[in-house]
Amino acid sequence: MNINDVAAEVGAKIVAAEVGLRVLPWDADSVNPPGVIFALPTEYEYDKTYGRGSDEFTLPMIVLVGKADARSARTHLGEYLNGSGPKSLKSIVDSSKTNTYTSCDTVRVQQVSDIGAYVAGAVTYLGATLDTRITGKGA
C-alpha cells in the first residue's frame, strides 16, 4: 500500500460527501478550516498475514473546525466526531460493501484522540485526531 494514495482516496471521499470539509495540505504555512490534514503514520506493520498477504497502519486524520474560542467550533466538531449521522467522518470513510477503496482493502476509524486545541500558522484551532486503521495487500 502507498500511504499517499490511501490518504488521497480517503480525502476524496470526505470532499465528495459535501459536509463542508476541505482536505488541507500537510505542509501549508497556514490553514483555512474547516478541514482535514492527514498526518504520517507513526508505524507501518508488514506481513500481518502469511507471505506478504497484508500490511496495516494507522493513518491519523486531524480535523480542524475553527478558532478555538468560536462557539460554533464545538458544535461543528461534535458533528464530525459522531459515530453516525450525515456529517460523521466515521460514516463517511469507513469501508463497507457500498463504500469500497482501490488503494487499500479496509478503512476503519478506530478512535478519536487529542480533542482540543491545535496550533497551525500561529492560530489556535479546535480539533481532534481520528485514528484510522488501514489494511491492504502487502507488496
Care to describe what's here?
The protein has helices at 3-16, 71-81, 89-93; strands spanning 22-23, 35-38, 44-49, 54-67, 106-120, 123-137. It has 139 residues and is an alpha+beta fold. Strands 1, 2, 3, 4, 5 and 6 form a six-stranded mixed beta sheet that branches. The longest helix is centred in the first third of the chain and has 14 residues, at 3-16. It is globular, with a radius of gyration of 15 Å. The mean pLDDT is 93.
Short précis:
The protein is built from 3 helices and 6 strands, in the order H-E-E-E-E-H-H-E-E.
SSE arrangement:
Blueprint: H1 3-16, E1 22-23, E2 35-38, E3 44-49, E4 54-67, H2 71-81, H3 89-93, E5 106-120, E6 123-137
Total DSSP E strands: 6
User: Number of helical runs?
Assistant: 3
| Outline | globular
Structural class: alpha+beta
Q: Percent of residues in helical segments?
A: 10-25%
Order of helices and strands: HEEEEHHEE
Strand content: 35-45%
Low-pLDDT residue intervals, each spanning 5 or more residues? none
Distance between the termini: 7 Å
Radius of gyration: 15 Å
> Mean pLDDT, rounded to whole units?
93
Largest sheet data = 6 strands, mixed
Overview features:
139 residues; alpha+beta; globular
